[in-house]
């Protein structure tokens, strides 16, 4: 079986939306990504760190989804990363109420020996230095390396970020971050500039407006499903990344045509995550539900003009 290695936070989240509020629940970019990737026929490895307070039942939950958790370090003297966020009616914007880095503060990733030859490597949004430390521990370069990042690293560690970006094949960022990183407003121009920084593909996530994938010669637009209710957007981007990289690990086809499929699969998975709090929905996703949703994406974008109009 082909192997995906994901590196990302495993966390406690506390979320408030106009539709309700949670206690501390299971969260983290690595968690959402690995759960999304568990829908594929791949070896699904996760590297992360948690604290002494992280419940064994959450680790078991990941195990039950065939995630190999031997790369999750448990620190005996530190608490687990904790993040709290609040959304208002406009779900594209959120207030971060609390970020307690705890065990993530001095995270030095330790990639277990049997994780060092992945076909696909997904670097979740961590410091660019940590992301690079993971790449440097690989025995051979993975066939494809994807990374997520955010404006915080552009503000605080731009040089380090540039170094890491130059080493990856796919960069996933949102529209505002694409503009910030490139210094350009219009997304096609901005994406071209980002491509010149090294990646072969740039995926620009636009929340409820879908995602664009750019390569040197091509562009493809994936819609977001127009949902009646977005209940909680937390983890949508990470679910997208897990669906995208999981699909690539299973198919091992890195042509632009197949990248388009991967973007649709990632978008379909993310559309489930936002329907419930945290990982509730993505934990229980069935193949049939996923298949039906991908059909909806097809229907949403296919059309045929009558002949002889033009
Ligand atoms: P997203 O909604 O895709 O931005 O991802 C939200 C997830 O990212 C939550 O589950 C958080 O636990 C996690 N998260 C938030 N801030 C950070 C951070 N600074 N480093 C790592 N993970 C984070």
List keywords for this structure.
310 residues, UDP-N-acetylmuramoyl-L-alanine:D-glutamate ligase, single chain, globular, 10 helices, binds adenosine monophosphate
Can you walk through the features of this model?
- The chain is of the alpha/beta class and 310 residues long.
- It has one domain: 3-Layer(aba) Sandwich (UDP-N-acetylmuramoyl-L-alanine:D-glutamate ligase).
- 35% of the residues lie in helices and 24% in strands.
- The chain is built from ten helices and 14 strands.
- It has helices at residues 29-37, 56-64, 128-136, 151-156, 158-165, 175-182, 187-195, 236-251, 256-273, 287-301; strands at residues 3-7, 11-17, 20-21, 25-27, 43-50, 67-74, 82-87, 94-100, 120-123, 144-148, 170-174, 201-205, 211-214, 219-222.
- The strands form two sheets. A nine-stranded mixed beta sheet has the order 6-5-1-9-10-11-12-13-14, sandwiched between helices. Strands 2, 3, 4, 7 and 8 form a five-stranded mixed beta sheet that branches.
- The termini are far apart.
- Bound molecules: adenosine monophosphate.
- The site of adenosine monophosphate (AMP) has 15 residues, from strand 2 and helix 8.
- Adenosine monophosphate is lined by residues 9, 11, 13, 27-29, 83, 99, 125-126, 234-238.
């Amino acid at each position: 079986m082909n192997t995906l290695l994901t590196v990302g936070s495993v966390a406690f989240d506390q979320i408030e939306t106009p539709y309700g509020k949670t206690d501390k629940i299971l969260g983290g970019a690595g968690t959402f990504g690995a759960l999304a990737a568990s829908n594929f026929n791949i070896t699904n490895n996760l590297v992360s760190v948690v604290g002494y307070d992280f419940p064994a039942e959450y680790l078991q939950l990941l195990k039950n989804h065939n995630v190999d958790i031997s790369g999750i370090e448990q620190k005996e003297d530190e608490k687990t990363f904790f993040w709290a966020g609040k959304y208002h009616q406009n779900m594209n914007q959120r207030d971060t109420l609390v970020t307690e880095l705890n065990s993530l503060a001095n995270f030095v990733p330790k990639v277990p020996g049997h994780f060092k030859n992945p076909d696909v490597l997904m670097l979740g949004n961590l410091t660019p230095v940590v992301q690079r430390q993971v790449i440097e521990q690989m025995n051979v370069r993975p066939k494809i390396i994807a990374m997520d990042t955010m404006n915080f690293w552009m503000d605080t560690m731009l040089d380090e970020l540039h170094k890491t970006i130059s080493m990856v094949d796919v960069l996933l960022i949102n529209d505002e971050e694409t503009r910030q990183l490139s210094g350009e407003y219009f997304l096609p121009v901005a994406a071209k500039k980002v491509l010149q920084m090294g990646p072969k593909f740039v995926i620009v996530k636009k929340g409820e407006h879908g995602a664009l994938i750019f390569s040197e010669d091509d562009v493809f637009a994936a819609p977001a499903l127009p949902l009646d209710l977005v209940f909680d957007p937390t983890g949508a981007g990470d679910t997208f990344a897990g669906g995208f990289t999981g699909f690539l690990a299973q198919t091992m086809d890195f042509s632009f045509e197949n990248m388009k499929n991967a973007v649709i699969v990632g978008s379909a998975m993310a559309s489930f995550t936002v329907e419930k709090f945290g990982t509730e929905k993505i934990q229980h996703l069935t193949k049939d539900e996923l298949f039906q949703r991908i059909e909806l994406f097809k229907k949403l974008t296919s059309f045929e003009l009558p002949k002889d109009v033009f």
